[in-house]
Amino acid sequence: MIRIPCKGVVSQSPRKGNLMALKSGRRPGGIPPWHPAVAFVRLLASLKLAVVLMVVLAGILAEATLLERVMGRDFALWHVYHSQWFIALLGMLGVNILASIVVRFPWGWRRVGFLLAHAGVLVLMLGAILTFTLGIEGHVVFQEGETAGKILLADRCQLTATWQGPRGAEGKPPIAFTFEPGPLDWPEGKTLPIGPEGGVGVNVLKFYRYAQVDVDWVAASDGSGSPAVRVGLAGAGGPVVREEWLAADSPAAERDLGPIKFGIQEATSPSIVDDFLKPPPADADRDGVLSAHYEGQMERIAVSTGVGKKLPIGKTNAAVEIAAYLPDSTPGSLGQFESRGTEPRNPMLELRVYLPGSDQPVRQIAFARFPLLNLDRVHGRECPVKFYYHHPAVAPEQGMEFLQTPDGKLHCRVIRDGKIEPRGTVGKGDQVEVSPQLTASILEHLPKARRKVDFLPVKLEPGESGGPEPAALVEITAADTTEQVWMRRNDPEFGSRVIETPRGQLHVEFAQEQRALGFSLGLLKFTRGLNPGRMGDASFTSRVRLTDKARKVDEEFEISMNNPLQHGKFTFYQSSFQETGEGRSVSILTAASDPGRLFKYLGSVMICVGILVTICTSSLLPRFTRTVP
What beta strand segments (E) does 503-627 contain? Predict the structure, then answer.
């Protein structure tokens, strides 16, 4: 082989060139190696730092997995994956990886695999951070024929305030206060002020993740409220085995204590006690008997012969007219009632009351099933004439009932075998025989009482995945009025409150946060597939209609356990269902939005390709170059 020297030409590899540049005191980019920026980047790119971060991350992930198994998924998400310190740890690891890429500049073609793999890790971590911070997971709950345009977020709460009343109804939209309470009860002293917004301020003073209601009745010092009595039920000659509060003008007016029904009412006229203890015979009139009470006097009117007649009430100047008899009444349009048929399933009377000094009659009603129900609250004023409607088709249920008269006395009657047995007046400490096997004791009687509502935290047993809805003590400030109320999320009784203010009524609701989908889903049909022998569910399927006007979509889709529906940024999965007790099922879809999904897929592919390229360039390529002559 003949060697021919070439004068004036220096041949050196890129690696030797970089080495000579470093010996000359400068890096290829013109930055000297002792520059503080270079030293800082080298520190961030340290392998020791990477090892420490990876070990810490592995330990945290192991602990989070254990927390998820013991405390539940929500606990692990809140305290680890969605926490700021965990995202900061991922960010620090990302900075370490990025610095390790930068410190090796210029890279050259031999580092393509290294760059792809490390860049893939960065993209994967970016996707994870986007999922933790911006991801949404909620539920769509609907029955056949219903349409949903929002999702419910189970881990977030929302307080919605709406102005009502003549001064409050100004056409303003509801005010929504949202917050994420976390999976545990709040420690003592922790509060969360929200607002003010639209003249309304909210301060969450306490929060119980799982709560049960504790209702008590206390004497009303201001003279307001309604009568309440605490009753204990015991076997013949035995101790009290169960006790309950009964309170008029509240959902606690009637209670079932074992096989016996208990109830309490409040009479504003003393003569009503005659209707209570000694009602007219069941066969007195086929359409019933109406008792009208005014100024201590009572007038009983046979309905079958009294419709359309204006009749005086005793020896007073007041009169009443039975305008209509509705055997099976139901609410109609414009606040009126109508009858669904001629069978007396829900007898009702439309009445006109003529009062002294008034030219126009007052409209009133009388229900046989709800004897003291009237329209006083609708009119905003009290009608001095009271009514008690007796009908043979509405027999009193077996049990025990109380009636408090205006003088504060508590009258009692027992219903056995369809017959009313008066027990006269009763008080604290009295015992009344309800049946040969049961005795009721009057444990406490409050002539004027108010309800005191409190909530107690519920501790789940190990392995339990869910409990009752959360409760919060909320302080509402609006129109120079501040009131503290306990509320429980999605509760039909305690999920809403009305606060009286000088501006009007403020209606507050406590529920799960709702997010708009941007389109609507209508449930056409829900189908359950059963296992052979009809033992257990094999599958759930929801046939829905998706309507998206912005994208001009109006189609039907089928969502099943292994067949999700993806539209826009949301993916819908068939997760579960609930029975309503009416032969119908409620379909529950899980709606998830993951903005980091594409980045996680892309990062995984980049890591795999980078590893493959690294293997090829580090092992196969040197062998190939050594065989080339």
Answer: 504-530, 537-548, 553-560, 565-567, 570-579, 585-593
* Helices vs strands, H then E, count in the chain: 11, 33
Give the integer Cα–Cα distance in Å for 267 and 184.
46
Exposed, middle or buried: residue 264 (CB in 10 Å: 0-12, 13-18, 19+)?
buried
Q: What is the mean pLDDT of residues 416-445?
A: 90
Which parts of 419-470 are beta strand (E)?
A: 419-426, 431-435, 438-457
Output the pTM of the full model: 0.67
Classify burial at 195, counting beta carbons within 10 Å of its beta carbon; exposed 0-12, middle 13-18, buried 19 or more: middle
CB 515 within 8 A of CB 136: yes
Q: Is the model's pLDDT at 20 over the cut of 50? A: no
As a whole number, mean pLDDT of residues 168-175 equals 68
- Cβ atoms 365, 337 nearer than 8 A: yes
Backbone angles phi, psi at 556, to 5 degrees: -105, 140
Inter-residue contact 366 to 375 (CB < 8 Å): no
The 3-state DSSP class for residue 493 equals: coil
User: Which residues contact residue 557 at a Cβ distance below 8 angstroms, ignoring those fewer than 6 apart?
Assistant: 543, 544, 545, 546, 565
242, 443 contact by CB (below 8 A) = no
Give the model confidence (pLDDT) of 63-91 as tens digits.
888 888 877 778 888 888 888 899 899 88
User: Which residues, in sequence order, are CB contacts of 286 under 8 Å at separation 6+?
Assistant: 304, 392
Residue 24 reports pLDDT greater than 70: no
9 is written with which tokens?
């030409």
Burial status of residue 23 (CB atoms within 10 A of its CB: 0-12, 13-18, 19 or more): exposed
Note the pLDDT of residue 15.
43
Query: How confident is the model over 238-266, as a mean pLDDT?
Result: 86
Q: How far apart are CA 549 and CA 282, in angstroms?
A: 62
Tokens 């020297």, located at residue: 5
Q: Are 404 and 395 in contact (CB under 8 A)?
A: no
The pLDDT > 90 percentage for the chain reads 45
Name the residue among 604, 601, 599, 606 with its Cα closest to residue 127: 599
